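anyone else get weird line breaks when pasting these?? whatever heres mine. first is seq + tokens for prot A
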Amino acid sequence: MLTEIEWWGGLIFVLGAITHRLVLGALDKKEEGIDWHRWQMHGFFALPAVVLAGYFYPLVGAGWQYAYMGVLGAALLLVAVMLVQEVTGDAGDAGEGDAGAADAAAADDGSPGWLMTLLGVVVLYSPVLVACGLGCAKAWPMVQVLV
């Protein structure tokens, strides 16, 4: 029988996998060169999955704790970068996202403003955000010992 935390953790993994599939399915395949946005999206989902998997195991050695905090730091950095790209509208379009112009255009063409965009991103990426939140809760005692 699964414990409650294992059940919820499994649910977060399943929702994360579904979200990963939906988001990558919506991306256009780049014909030439390296598709950096696609690689960012893979890391955006894979790093928090590693963090969530590590959440369920005791990290006894100092090496495991440092590795966990390193993966968590990389996941948080990538999550912040991706959320900024999603909200400002420059995901995959280097140099074309201007938040002020996007807000002005949103009022004119009926598309949602930045607040609704942020709310949509938070709902869509909630499995990743929950995994990072749980990772932060687990890593906080480890950080306090270091400080």
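and prot B, same format (seq, then tokens)
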Amino acid sequence: MRAGAFKAVIGTAFLGAVVLAPAAEASETGAQTVSSSCAAGTFRGTFSITYQPAGPAEYHPTIATIGGGPYIGDSGTFAMDVFYVDADGAANSVYTGKFTGTAGTKVSVHLPEDVKVPQDRPSYVSVSFDGGAGPCTARAEIR
């Protein structure tokens, strides 16, 4: 093996180790990510949210990445709601936010530390997208 080829192999192996490190760190903290999308005509909205255990009985949603469009009439407005359903079937919102980004780009939202949902109740994240003539809503379960 020539010296240049050996350096390329070592460099590739090192790069692979660097890329895998964040996934290993996420699994150690128990972090999980769920995603959802919706569509209205040609408009499409997507989001993913990462959450992790916050003690033995709660989850803390930490960061959401939201994107939609780009299509004529897309305002780039996203409304997010984090909620759980109590034993009586009522939805209890623990976080709401409305965000405006440039149409066709992604927006990352870091949720405050005190945003938590119970692990023993159905919990969800809902994101509504203003797609101009065709808005839509996507929802994912935190489990």
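btw re prot B: Residues 1-27 have pLDDT under 50 and may be disordered. The helical segments are 3-29.
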